[in-house]
Every structure is written in C-alpha cells, then in structure tokens.
Amino acid sequence: WNGIDYGDDNEENNEGDAQRRDRRMNSQDESSSDYEFMYNKQDNWPQNCKEMYLSDSYGNTVYRDLTPLPGGNMTEALYLDEDCTQRSTMTFQEYIVKFYAYYYYDN
C-alpha cells in the first residue's frame, strides 16, 4: 500500500485515481527536469560577491551576486558593498546595457 486511497473498484474512481497518479508523475517529472537544468547550469551562476568592471551612474563601484525571488527562484542583482548586502539602484539589466554601450558603441 502506497498511501493512496483507491476507493472502491468502480470505473469512475479508477479513472480519477489514474488521473491523479498521472498528474503527480508529471509534476515529479517537471521538478526533476528543473532540478537537472539548474544542476547542470550551476557553474554559470555567480559563486560569491564579485566586483564589476563599470560603475553605476553615480560613480559607485558595483558588485554582482545572486538575490532571492519569491517562489524559491533567484536572479542576479547589483550591490554597493563588497559583501553584497546593500542593493544598488542600478538593475543588472541596466548594467548589461551600459556594458554593451561602453564596449561596443562608444569606441
């Protein structure tokens, strides 16, 4: 017995149980797939607070690290201190634009 109440053996209950089992298996497949994806990409994520090459619009040195998001997700963010505790007003997306403009369009 695996903890699933199969009810009585009529066709309606069996169909409902099968659908619940399929839904549970699909959910596990998606979770496993998400886990495998993140596991394989973990070397691409920053490992700690790292100083960036360009400063923000106020001339402050900015640092890059991960920041948590709702639902257990994460993204990259910019910080103003080398311990990555004080968030910068500059977003990581703004930094990318500045980086490309500096290195590819301002030459």
Defining key terms:
three-stranded antiparallel β-sheet, disordered N terminus, about 110 residues, alpha+beta
Word description of this protein:
It is elongated, with a radius of gyration of 24 Å. Helices cover 42% and strands 19% of the residues. It has 107 residues and is of the alpha+beta class. The chain has helices at 11-41, 92-105; strands spanning 50-55, 61-68, 74-79.
Write the layout of secondary structure elements.
Elements: H1 11-41, E1 50-55, E2 61-68, E3 74-79, H2 92-105
Antiparallel strand pairs: 1-2, 2-3
Structural class: alpha+beta
What is the N-to-C order of secondary-structure elements (H for helix, E for strand)? Answer: HEEEH
* Unreliable segments of 5+ consecutive residues: 1-13
What is the overall shape? Answer: elongated
Number of helices, where a helix is a run of at least 4 consecutive DSSP H or I residues: 2
Number of beta-strand segments:
3
Strand arrangement, largest sheet?
Answer: 1-2-3
Summarize the structure.
This protein has 107 residues and is α+β, with helices and mostly antiparallel strands. The chain contains two helices and three strands.
